[in-house]
Design goal:
The complex is a heterodimer of chains A (112) and B (124). By secondary structure, chain A is mostly beta strands. Chain A contains no helices and 9 strands. Chain A starts with 8 loop residues before the first strand and ends with a strand. Classes of the chains: A mainly beta (112), B mainly beta (124).
Chain lengths: 112, 124
């Protein structure tokens, strides 16, 4: 069972926007900025697309944006494209007995 | 070009041992925290361990403490994961990953480069 809860699947049509949520508890986010998002295409390694809640690494499309409110982080993809179809994972730094990196269970995005 | 290439995966019996390696190139390996992250057959991602630049600080997820050991050889730009007392639930693709530093800060859950993964199967 993953520490962070994500919907198993979301879908949208080309050009639309979708949002993926990532919900935890107060201990799942050791600090406000400890939220990142990864995109993973089949047979490939995960790719960092959002770090520190809402920042994009160089080369990542500005169609990807992130936010956080309370114990829920969100990833929004605007102007959906076929190539966005992938699995998406959120990640945080959680306060357990020790501090651990944790991931969400992943969300499969289908572009209709 | 940054590259991380894992090797050493394979089939091992429960209770057995295996060492996976990660060869790094294209960046100053000794300047980065490194991690192992695994992905189960059900596609769940799980952080396994990380290690500081000079190897002086190591951290593990509870489920592998006492069984797995992370290490590095900065002279050979290599990262290792020694896995002992393996269990069926350790079956996964094991990725090595570099900690990302963005905007002057480096957070433990940010990984900007990943290897292609090494499959470890624990089964009799």
């Amino acid at each position: 069972q993953s520490a962070l809860t994500q919907p198993a699947s979301v879908s949208g049509s080309p050009g639309q926007s979708i949002t993926i949520s990532c919900t935890g508890t107060s201990t799942d986010f050791a600090g406000y900025y400890f939220v990142s998002w990864y995109q993973q295409h089949p047979g490939k390694a995960p790719k960092l697309i959002i770090y520190k809640v809402s920042n994009r690494p160089s080369g990542v499309s500005d169609r990807f944006s992130g936010s956080k409110s309370g114990d829920t982080a969100s990833l929004t993809i605007s102007g959906l494209q076929a190539e966005d179809e992938a699995d998406y994972y959120c990640s945080s730094y959680a306060r357990r007995i020790t501090l651990d990196v944790v991931f969400g269970g992943g969300t499969k995005l289908t572009v209709l | 070009e940054v590259q991380l290439v894992e090797s050493g995966g394979g089939l091992v019996q429960p209770g057995g041992s295996l060492r996976v390696s990660c060869a790094a190139s294209g960046f100053t390996f000794s300047s980065y925290w490194m991690s192992w992250v695994r992905q189960t057959p059900g596609k769940r991602l799980e952080w396994v361990a990380n290690i500081k630049q000079d190897g002086s600080d190591k951290n593990y997820v509870d489920s592998v403490k006492g069984r797995f050991t992370i290490s590095r050889d900065n002279t050979k730009n290599s990262l290792f994961l020694q896995m002992n007392s393996l269990r069926a639930e350790d079956t996964a693709v094991y990725y090595c990953a570099r900690r990302f530093c963005g905007g002057g800060t480096c957070y433990p859950n940010d990984f900007d480069f990943w290897g292609q993964g090494a499959l470890v199967t624990v089964s009799s």
